[in-house]
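Thought: the user wants the 3D structure for the chain below. I'll pass the sequence to the structure tool as-is, report back what it returns, then summarize two notable features.
Action: structure_tool
Action Input:
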Amino acid sequence: MNISNLSNNIRRIRTANRRTQEDVANDIGISLTAYNKIEQGKSDIAISRLQQIADSLKVEVSVLLQNEEESTTDVLNDSQIYRYKDKDRWVEEELQELKADVKMIKTHLFGS
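Observation:
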C-alpha cells in the first residue's frame, strides 16, 4: 500500500458517504488544511490518525488500506454496504435523507 492509494481510498469513501473534508477534519480534530494534505498524499498518517479517519467514515481501517483493485468493489457498490461498522445507523441516515427528498418532491409537485 502506498500513500497515493491510501489517500485515494480516503477521498473516495468520504465522497461516497457525502461528507466534506471539513466534516472529517472536525471529527478528528485537525485543521482543514492538515486534512487536505492527507487526502492529497502530502502527509504521513499515524496509525492513531488513520483509526480516527476510519471511525469518522464508519469503515474499518482495513478498508482504507486496501489496494485499488480490492477497494473499488469492497466499499460501496450500487448502494450496497460492505464492512461498515454501524450499518443500522447508516441505513437510518439514508432512510431519513430519502424521506426528506420525497417530501421536497411532493411539495414541489403539489405545493403542500
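Final Answer: Structure generated. The helical segments are 3-16, 21-28, 32-39, 47-57, 61-64, 68-74, 87-110. The two ends are 53 Å apart (CA to CA).
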